[in-house]
């Protein structure tokens, strides 16, 4: 069974139709790279799955449970329960500047779950170790490079033990020499079979790590396939035109 099912999703901002009947699904442990021109609705689609935007129509099902069904949202307790399965990583990291790295990781679990402080603390240590930043636990985000900030953001997203991670251009704000360390962490998560949807401009990552690449343009899902199929043998003219510009 699919872990994410998006059916006939529609979303407008005022008169601007940003998602026009988007449908696709993601299998457990699948890594899907989403590519497409700027303004095509990729972030809106990802934010809608994470319930950071509400759609106007269509359905989103996470692990079999409807977040929204034919435009009708589940109850707020149900929505909370469903969104707890997902973590999101943003282009601009969105770390809390007034909190240390460790406190950035510990905040949400303390607020949401009320787990014992010792358990939360040891989990934070394990995850900082995993992204190679345990030695930065007590510093503030302003003392970190962009690549380090993004690795902290990934560790923070993992604190809630999500089954799905959504990434919105996680390396777009980084200097080129810092993208590798972030992609490496994401690659490791993929190897550990985390389900991931990654909006990205990194065609190398899409080719190397994604199971499937999905192309969006003008609020529509155009086509998807294995990296080899989509990047080397695209079927649609719009995909071909986009790839000719970026590859
Ligand atoms: P992408 O991530 O593919 O670049 P977005 O989903 O960010 O595309 O944006 C799609 C379109 O929706 C763009 O034209 C953008 O300007 C518009 N848009 C996005 N968010 C908002 C918002 N909160 N209010 C109004 N327009 C928005
Ligand atoms: Mg975007």
Automatic annotation (TrEMBL):
Domain of life: Bacteria
GO MF, any single term: ATP binding
InterPro entries, A to Z: AAA+_ATPase, ABC_ATPase_HisP-typ, ABC_transporter-like_ATP-bd, ABC_transporter-like_CS, MetN_ABC_transporter-like, P-loop_NTPase
Protein name from the UniProt record: Amino acid ABC transporter ATP-binding protein
Family: Belongs to the ABC transporter superfamily.
Subcellular compartments: Cell membrane
Entries under PROSITE patterns matching the protein: ABC_TRANSPORTER_1, ABC_TRANSPORTER_2
Matches recorded under CDD domains: ABC_HisP_GlnQ
The ABC transporter domain, residue ranges: 4-243
Signal peptide as annotated in the record: none
Keywords: Amino-acid transport, ATP-binding, Cell membrane, Membrane, Nucleotide-binding, Transport
Organism: Paenibacillus puldeungensis
Database matches in Pfam families: ABC_tran
Membrane topology type: Peripheral membrane protein
Presence of keyword Aminoacyl-tRNA synthetase: no
């Amino acid at each position: 069974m699919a872990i994410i099912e998006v059916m006939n999703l529609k979303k407008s901002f005022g008169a601007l139709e940003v998602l026009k009947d988007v449908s696709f699904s993601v299998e457990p442990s699948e890594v899907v790279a989403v590519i497409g021109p700027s303004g095509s609705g990729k972030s809106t689609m990802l934010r809608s799955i994470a319930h950071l935007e509400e759609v106007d129509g269509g359905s989103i099902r996470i692990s079999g449970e409807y977040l929204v069904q034919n435009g009708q949202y589940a109850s707020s307790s149900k929505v909370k329960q469903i969104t707890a399965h997902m973590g999101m990583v943003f282009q601009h990291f969105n770390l809390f500047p007034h909190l240390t790295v460790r406190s950035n990781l510990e905040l949400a679990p303390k607020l949401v779950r009320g787990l014992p402080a010792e358990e939360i603390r040891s989990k934070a240590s394990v995850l900082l170790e995993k992204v190679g930043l345990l030695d930065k636990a007590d510093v503030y985000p302003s003392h970190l490079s962009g690549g380090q900030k993004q690795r902290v953001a990934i560790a923070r997203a993992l604190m809630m033990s999500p089954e799905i991670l959504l990434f919105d251009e996680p390396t777009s704000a980084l200097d080129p020499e810092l993208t590798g360390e972030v992609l490496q962490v994401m690659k490791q998560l993929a190897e550990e079979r985390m389900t991931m949807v990654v909006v990205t401009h990194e065609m190398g990552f899409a080719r190397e790590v994604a199971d499937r690449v999905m192309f969006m343009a003008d609020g529509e899902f155009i086509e998807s396939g294995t990296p080899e199929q989509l990047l080397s043998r695209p079927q649609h003219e719009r995909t071909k035109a986009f790839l000719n510009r970026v590859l």
